[in-house]
Structures are given as C-alpha cells and as structure tokens.
Design goal:
By secondary structure, this protein is α+β, with helices and mostly antiparallel strands. It folds into two domains: 3-177, 2-Layer Sandwich (Formiminotransferase-cyclodeaminase, Chain B, domain 1); 182-254, Formiminotransferase, C-terminal subdomain (Alpha-Beta Plaits). It has six helices and twelve strands. Its main location: cytoplasm. Pfam families: FTCD, FTCD_N. Residues 180-264 form the Formiminotransferase C-terminal subdomain domain. Residues 2-179 form the Formiminotransferase N-terminal subdomain domain.
C-alpha cells in the first residue's frame, strides 16, 4: 500500500475551534487518516499528523493550508516558536511503497497550487530545496513573519512559488520532503531559560557564534561571523521557558535519525 505522511505545523495552539476547523478540512478528504493533533499553549502552535494515499494526502494538505489561511491571522500571532506563516511548515514523508522523489513531487504540486490559488509565497526546503542553502529550515525562516516584507524584496529570497509579495494575513508557507523527524523535548529542573538556551546551542548542528571576552561576535578576515559547530549533525535545538510546566525546556528535532539517532 502506498502511504505518505504529512506533518503540517499551524500557527495556532490556543483556540480549539480554529484547530478543529483545520483538522476537519483534513478529515473531509478521502483516503486520509488523521493520526495526531498536538497543540502547544506557550508556542501557540499545533503539530498535526496525518497519513494516506499520495493523492489524498496532497489534497488534504492543500485544504488544510487553505483553511488555515482563512481562520488564522498572522498579524495577531504571538508565540515562543519561530514561525513564518499560518501554515508554517508542511513536510511530506515517504512511509511505504513511495520514494523520496515521489514526496518531492507532492510538495511541489501543493506549493504551486498554494502559490497560484491562495496567493501565498511558498518556499521549498529539505529534499525539495531549490538551492543548497534552502535545505535548512532555519535559513528559509530567518527573520520569521515580521521580516517577510523586507525579505521578499531580496532576490535571494524570491519564493519558489507564488508572489514575491507580502501576504499580511497568511504570511508564507514552507513545504518539502524529508525523512521522519523525531521531536524530543527535555524539561530541566530549573526556571533558568539561559541554561536551556546554552545546552541547545551545544547540541544543535548549527552551534553558536564565537564571541570575544566582551561577548561580541568574532569575525573572520572576510567579515563573516565565525560559528562554533554543535555536537550533532542533522539536529536542531532551541531553549525556552514553558509557563504551564514552570520549567525551562530544550526542544530538539532529529531531522535525520539515520545520521543522528536519539540514543547516541
């Protein structure tokens, strides 16, 4: 049986009615099964997981993005998690009897349709990326929603689909094909968010900026800021404080468990 997984992240984690409208749009499509809905209060973000036949998943993803653009207004959005649009990311994952290339094609079809029909700027990332830099979600999402008006004027950040024009209500969509992502959160026995941020910088592949004794960024001879790499490849991390837990937390994403599995 051909199966594709889709894990869209929506910029709403507090209003259950809005979340339900989006998941209803997904479940309205045949050959698709909704597996999980995981809202976060502090992040104001909901991660949805559904699976199904390639055509069904393709249609359900579009309908979810469309509904999110109707019921979420990014002009009012605040949350701890980086984000760029009402549907922030929409990745496709091969599960059985489909290839990564199949999922790349699905992401491109969805991206093209979103750009043309909804007039939302769309960026491809991970295995669908149009440039090596765009494989990295953090590169594509830099500046977040607030930085989009200026970012869209830069030819370097021309969208892969849709207009290079700011959509104030919906923001922008990032979509692509990737391996299974493992999200792994660690609650620390402290309220000190600086400790969580420091540990995240040590763990994540991107690492941290090198700084001098005055805590200023150190630059190379070409003026570029020097990065100190983190410990693990294909690992992203961020530290924040979660009021509902009363604890600082490290949120870790293993973007390729075949290279860096959680047990290493």
């Amino acid at each position: 049986m051909k199966l594709v997984e889709c894990v869209p992240n929506f910029s709403e984690g507090r209003d259950k009615n809005i979340i339900k409208q989006i998941t209803d749009a997904i479940e309205s499509v045949d050959e698709v099964t909704l597996l999980d809905v995981d809202p976060g209060q502090e992040t104001n973000r909901t991660v949805v997981t559904f699976v199904g036949a390639p055509k069904g998943v393709e249609e359900a993803a579009f309908q979810a993005v469309k509904k999110a653009s109707e019921v979420i207004d990014m002009r009012n959005h605040k949350g701890a998690h980086p984000r760029m649009g009402a549907t922030d990311v929409c990745p496709f994952v091969p599960v059985s009897e489909v290839t990564m290339n199949d999922c790349i094609e699905i992401s491109k079809k969805v991206g093209k349709r979103v750009g043309e029909e909804l007039q939302i700027p769309v960026y491809l990332y991970e295995n669908s990326a149009s440039t090596p830099e765009r494989k990295n979600l953090a590169y594509v999402r830099q500046g977040e929603y607030e930085g989009l008006p200026e970012k869209l004027k830069d030819p370097k950040f021309k969208p892969d689909f849709g207009p290079a024009k700011f959509n104030p209500k919906a923001g922008a969509l990032i979509t692509g094909a990737r391996e299974f992502l493992i999200a792994y959160n660690i609650n620390l026995n402290t309220r000190d968010v600086t400790k969580a941020k420091d540990l995240a910088l040590i763990i994540r592949e991107k690492g941290r900026r090198k700084r001098d004794k005055n805590y200023q960024p150190v630059r190379d001879k070409d003026g570029k800021i020097i990065q100190i790499p983190g410990l693990f490849k294909n690992v992203k991390g961020i530290g924040w404080y979660i009021p509902e837990y009363g604890q600082a937390q490290i949120s870790i994403n293993f973007t390729n468990y075949k290279i860096s599995p959680p047990h290493i």
